[in-house]
Amino acid sequence: MTEDTTTRPPVRQWPALDLHGVDFDPVLTRLMDEGPVTRIALPNGEGWAWLVTRHADVRMVANDARFSREAVVGRQVTRLAPHFIPQAGAVGFADPPDHTRLRRAVAAAFTTRGVERLRTRARAMLDELVDGMLRDGPPADLTERLLAPFPIAVICELMGVPAADRQLMHTWTQLILSSAHGADVSERAKNEMSAYFTRLIRSRADGAGEDVTSLLGAAVDAQELTEDEAVGIAVLVQIGGEAVTNNCGNMAYILLTRPDLMARLREEPGLRPRAIDELLRYIPHRSAVGLSRIALEDVEIAGVRIGEGEPVYVSYLAANRDPEVFADPDRIDFERTPNPHVSFGFGPHYCVGGMLAQLESELLVDVLADRFPGLRLAVPAADVPFRKGALIRGPEALPVTWSAVG
After folding, report:
1. Is 134 exposed, middle or buried (0-12, 13-18, 19+ CB in 10 A)?
2. Quick one: which of 11, 17, 294, 374 could link to 48 by a disulfide (CB 3.0–4.6 Å)?
3. Residue 259: how many CB atoms within 10 A of its CB?
4. What is the pLDDT along the chain (406 residues), one digit of tens a residue?
5. Distance CA 45, CA 348 (A)
């Protein structure tokens, strides 16, 4: 690696903040103000990493083969989670063309046709939950009654996980997505989930179903994937699918604390898809940053030279607030168009479940707006508890009440 003779920006410590509501991370705000390319040190791992925040630069790094996910494996890059250890063969740490091969195995489940096939079943599962909630009457915890069980049910349906095992999946996922329990607990949960999917994929080797584990079983049987690769994909998709719980919770929190926005969605149902897109842009859905990349050669970004072998993070949250792309970015604007947000990522690692997450958001917004007259928080907004030590932000509980009918 060539010695850098230019002046580098200082390394800024980025602590793991437990933020309330949808407050934007003040550390990230300061980093964005310092420049489009800065340096950070997160609570775990070693050393420092570059942080890229401008929309155009974020998309470039995410889509540029000179920045490798695979090269992260075996390195203790500075990171947020204490328990995160990259595993060889994981789809999240593969580069094209290998990454393309891995994703191809489950692509059929996440096409427009595949997701739409799930819509009727998903709506029926949601209606069943809503019916029970309305039958019991207010008050209720929206997270407990809808926002947690619905995404769990949908992703388990898509994966082919039996209904009886949904709670088990939920428990493992919560332990994996939290830094509050320590590295050993999170690693054990990941290993137990991996063992579960190993057994399930083996049992679906005939590939007779359209669910994800059947597709993976067929791919292993056809020697298109190794069993370890298939299990790694299953774990990633399962965890990502349930992470929707927190983002839907953030969406509901905004609508409950901004009754003017909820009123618009009730009065103008046709506005809902665009509104959901804007909420996805606006919501700071994660803490700090996600997965890093390694520069495979020297690359200049915004006048800053990133050296070969140096770790790089992109912030999709920052990119979604870039004033050069989004006018008045800190304001929720349901009329915003175009809206090229990067909430599901960009490039080869664009979230495979993006369309599924949007489907679930659409269905949830519909029932909140249409089936709960006078829906409102049952406690002051400041008293809504938000998850502590979570990699994906969201309300731990969302106490609500509404106008009971009949």
Report:
1. middle
2. 11
3. 13
4. 444 545 799 999 999 899 999 999 999 999 999 999 999 999 999 999 999 999 999 999 999 999 999 999 889 999 998 876 556 567 888 999 999 998 888 888 888 888 888 899 999 999 999 999 999 999 999 999 999 899 989 999 999 999 999 999 989 888 887 766 667 888 889 899 999 999 999 998 876 778 999 999 999 999 999 999 999 899 988 888 877 677 889 999 999 999 999 999 999 999 999 999 999 999 999 999 999 999 999 999 999 999 999 999 999 999 999 999 999 999 999 999 999 999 999 999 998 888 889 999 999 999 999 999 999 999 999 999 999 888 889 999 999 999 976 5
5. 25
Q: Tokens in use for 247? A: 């983002």
How far apart CA 26 and CA 17 sit, in angstroms, is 9
What secondary structure letter does DSSP report for 110? G
CA 219 – CA 213 distance, rounded (Å):
10
